[in-house]
């Protein structure tokens, strides 16, 4: 019998852990807190400058209003969007991994069933003079092939029973072959579902990548941050390149 990976195919929808995405969400929450604190600091600075009408002070206030506050606002928006993107991605990965585990578990059950059916068909075939190898890719015919003389076995002297042996074997073969085909059909459905999960995973990754693109104007800004709000740190706009 084949390995599960051979049946399900090369796609790997369950690779990686959702925990990494949720860790990114927690880090981005700290960055958002820094941006909020930075905005409050800039506004406080503008408030302290409000009573001074010197030209240099007016220019500084203008810089704070048109650069620092705008930068902090845009940073907060980008970080918020990134949080949502990582959270959505982590949620999707969690669901995909759960579905993948269920598919793999069911595939393992079906493989065990196929192994039992193969042994049963081999036993019937040995009695009926049929020699063939069947698999999920090459299931048996529904009707018992007529390829050789029936091996009667220990039928004794009961001629009526002996005459019924071929019919009994044909019935056993038919019932087993029907179940064999049913399992093969279900495996094909699982293969398709597995591939669909892989496509969902790829789509989730593309959406995450698209959400993390930084707006062009922000690529000219440089921020510096220390340990973060949880450690009493903060954020500052150090240059606009």
Account of the protein in words:
It is rod-shaped, with a radius of gyration of 34 Å. The chain has a two-stranded antiparallel sheet. It has helices at 4-8, 19-49, 55-128, 159-211, and strands at residues 221-225, 235-240. With 241 residues, the protein is mainly α. The two termini are 63 Å apart.
Search tags:
241 residues; mainly alpha; disordered C terminus
How are the SSEs ordered, and which strands pair?
Layout: H1 4-8, H2 19-49, H3 55-128, H4 159-211, E1 221-225, E2 235-240
Antiparallel strand pairs: 1-2
How do you describe this structure in short?
Helices cover 68% and strands 5% of the residues.
The mean pLDDT is 78
Radius of gyration: 34 Å
Biggest β-sheet, characterized? 2 strands, antiparallel
Report strand %: under 5%
- The total of beta strands comes to 2
Poorly predicted parts = 152-163, 227-233, 235-241
Tell me the distance between the termini: 63 Å
SSE pattern, N- to C-terminal: HHHHEE
What form results from the Cα inertia axes?
rod-shaped
Widest sheet, order of strands:
1-2
Tally of helical segments: 4
Oligomerization: single chain
Helix content percent band: 55-70%
Global structural class: mainly alpha
């Amino acid at each position: 019998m084949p390995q599960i990976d051979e049946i399900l195919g090369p796609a790997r929808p369950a690779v990686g852990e959702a925990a990494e995405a949720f860790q990114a969400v927690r880090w981005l929450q700290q960055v958002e807190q820094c941006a909020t604190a930075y905005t409050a600091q800039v506004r406080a600075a503008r408030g302290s400058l409000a009573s001074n009408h010197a030209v240099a002070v007016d220019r500084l206030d203008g810089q704070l209003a048109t650069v620092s506050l705008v930068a902090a606002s845009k940073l907060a928006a980008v970080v918020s969007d990134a949080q949502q993107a990582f959270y959505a991605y982590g949620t999707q990965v969690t669901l995909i991994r759960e579905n993948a585990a269920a598919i793999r578990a069911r595939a393992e059950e079906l493989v065990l069933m196929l192994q039992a059916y193969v042994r049963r068909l081999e036993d019937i075939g040995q009695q009926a003079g049929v020699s063939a190898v069947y698999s999920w890719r090459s299931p048996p015919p529904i009707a018992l092939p007529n390829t050789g003389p029936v091996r009667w076995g220990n039928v004794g002297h009961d001629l009526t029973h002996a005459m019924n042996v071929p019919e009994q074997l044909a019935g056993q073969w038919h019932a087993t072959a029907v179940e064999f085909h049913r399992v093969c059909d279900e495996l094909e459905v699982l293969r398709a579902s597995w591939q669909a999960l892989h496509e969902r995973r790829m789509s989730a990754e593309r959406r995450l990548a698209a959400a993390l693109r930084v707006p062009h104007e922000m690529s000219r800004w440089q921020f510096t941050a220390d340990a973060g709000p949880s450690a009493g740190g903060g954020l500052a706009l150090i240059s606009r390149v």
